[in-house]
């Protein structure tokens, strides 16, 4: 095991220290200085080591408990959805002199988990910068009203959804009241609840206080994480709170807890992001000395570092070493490496490893194609990016928003603005909703080319579709006519 740690150190030690001051990855890409694209951030890849997320999705427990034939169930669900529409219309009438509680009671509807979820989801979708306080107030009123009905009790998922609404609207104090209410009613505060809280609180500069409260909490259900510290670290890496990760790690050691492989992966990611390459290597050595073998996610992180450091030969050696120890590189590993090499500007190495991926029996997925398409776009080889784009569609891989963003960027580089704008409509046709990065790329390129009117049309299209209304202020100088 020491030999493996030394291998990792030998390969990585020559990476230039300036690699520590890396740009933020593309899903934070609105603010990237040169690559707004579909690259997968290493933090997202680390999340896949969580075979332990507490709930895979916000599925309401009461819905799953409903028994009966499929036709009966369909009737029940349909009735709940219709009632949710009626409740939503009542909530929209709220104002001075209007008694929401009485109006809701007069509906004489059956309160169920499906109903509560649908109403809260509708409220969350309508949140924008102008009505966020109103949405938070209406959501909380409805949540209290529905929770007081007989034969119904809010589930943990209902609490999570209400917490998300309060987080989206910046209502920190009510969030904590809701967490206290959960505790009073016997619900453990889960890793998911912490994740929602820390995202909102960290934005307000309250990250450390939130962490301390959860460390001390006797009702924090951190399962299936090994301990509360891993649950906390897992959430912190997802929101890029790297300095806070260091602080939590020190608290963890002070409290007598030892790191495991997940802890080491998160810590190394944080050290790399903070530019602390010496500590990164030291952790890699420490991991080996403590008897932990690198897992697929450790190797994924190492390949990313080598790619960003433009070390293709070292990366090839590491891929071969993985096979020697019985860990066969996957699409994820090749994609992460190509991502890093592309950012280092080594297109030839990108092509080589893309071909190697296929040779090793790994079929490229949407992310792989997107990373390679973006590499071509950034290198100015726009014909090859278009060729690969058409190839992925022919292979049955539907482009995602990041794929389209790269293609739109390439078309704008060729000054084919009309075609770039039409690709926005093509996205909708293929069932792919543009993300904010797509709109930003198109609008900024149109403005830079002096096509202000066309940029305004794209923004109007975005608002008409109800997309990112709360972010329209990001586009300076825009005024909706």
Enumerate the spans where pLDDT stays under 50 for 5 or more consecutive residues: 1-40, 44-67
| Inertia-based shape | globular
Question: DSSP strand (E) fraction?
Answer: under 5%
Protein structure class: mainly alpha
Number of strands: 2
Radius of gyration from CA coordinates: 25 Å
The strands making up the biggest β-sheet line up spatially as 1-2
Biggest sheet: strands, sense, closure?
2 strands, parallel
Assembly context of the chains = single chain
For this entry, give a set of tags:
481 residues, mainly alpha, two-stranded parallel sheet, 25 helices, 2 strands, 1% strand, globular, disordered N terminus
Description:
The chain has 481 residues and is mainly alpha-helical. The chain is 64% helix and 1% strand. The chain is built from 25 helices and 2 strands. The chain has helices spanning 2-12, 42-47, 61-65, 70-92, 100-105, 113-125, 132-147, 156-168, 172-184, 191-203, 207-216, 228-238, 242-254, 261-273, 277-289, 296-308, 312-324, 331-343, 347-359, 366-379, 382-394, 401-413, 417-429, 436-448, 452-464; strands at 189-190, 220-221. The longest helix is centred in the N-terminal third of the chain and has 23 residues, at 70-92. The chain is globular. It starts with a helix and ends in a 17-residue tail after the last helix. The model is unreliable at 1-40 and 44-67 (pLDDT under 50).
């Amino acid at each position: 095991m020491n030999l493996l740690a030394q291998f990792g150190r030998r390969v990585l030690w020559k990476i230039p220290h300036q690699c520590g001051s890396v740009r933020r990855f593309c899903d934070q890409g609105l603010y990237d200085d040169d690559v707004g694209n579909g690259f997968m951030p290493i933090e997202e890849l680390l999340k896949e080591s969580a075979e332990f997320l507490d709930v895979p999705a916000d599925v309401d427990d009461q819905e799953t408990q409903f028994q009966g034939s499929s036709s009966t169930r369909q009737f029940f669900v349909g009735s709940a959805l219709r009632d949710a529409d009626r409740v939503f219309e009542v909530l929209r009438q709220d104002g001075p002199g209007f008694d929401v509680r009485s109006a809701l009671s007069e509906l004489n509807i059956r309160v169920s988990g499906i109903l509560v979820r649908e109403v809260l989801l509708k409220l969350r979708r309508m949140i924008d910068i102008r009505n966020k306080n109103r949405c938070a107030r209406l959501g909380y009123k409805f949540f209290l009203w529905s929770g007081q009905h007989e034969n119904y009790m809010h589930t943990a998922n209902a609490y999570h959804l209400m917490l998300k609404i309060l987080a989206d609207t910046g209502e920190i104090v009510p969030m904590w009241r809701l967490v206290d209410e959960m505790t009073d009613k016997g619900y453990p505060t889960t890793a998911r609840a912490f994740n929602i809280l820390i995202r909102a609180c960290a934005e307000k500069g309250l990250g450390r206080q939130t962490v301390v409260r959860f460390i001390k909490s006797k009702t924090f259900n951190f399962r299936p994480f090994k301990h509360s510290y891993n649950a906390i670290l897992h959430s912190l890496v997802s929101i890029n709170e790297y300095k806070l990760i260091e602080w939590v790690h020190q608290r963890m050691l002070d409290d007598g807890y030892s790191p495991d492989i997940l802890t080491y992966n998160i810590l190394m990611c944080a050290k790399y992001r903070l530019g602390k390459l010496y500590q990164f290597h030291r952790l890699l050595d420490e991991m080996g000395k403590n008897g932990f073998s690198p897992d697929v996610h450790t190797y994924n992180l190492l390949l990313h570092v080598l790619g960003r450091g433009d070390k293709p030969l070292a990366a090839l050696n590491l891929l071969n070493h993985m096979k020697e120890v019985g860990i066969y590189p996957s699409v994820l590993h090749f994609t992460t490496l190509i991502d890093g090499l592309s950012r280092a500007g080594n297109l030839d190495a990108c092509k080589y490893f893309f071909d190697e991926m296929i040779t090793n029996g790994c079929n490229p997925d949407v992310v792989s194609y997107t990373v390679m398409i973006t590499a071509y776009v950034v290198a100015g080889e726009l014909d090859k990016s278009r060729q690969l784009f058409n190839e992925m569609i022919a292979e049955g891989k539907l482009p995602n928003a990041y794929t389209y963003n790269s293609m739109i960027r390439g078309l704008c580089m060729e000054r084919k603005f009309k075609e770039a704008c039409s690709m926005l409509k093509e996205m909708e046709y293929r069932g792919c909703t543009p993300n904010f990065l797509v709109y930003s790329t198109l609008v900024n390129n149109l403005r830079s080319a002096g096509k202000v009117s066309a940029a305004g049309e794209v923004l109007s299209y975005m608002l008409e579709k109800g997309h990112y209304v709360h972010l329209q202020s990001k586009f300076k100088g825009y005024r909706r006519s």
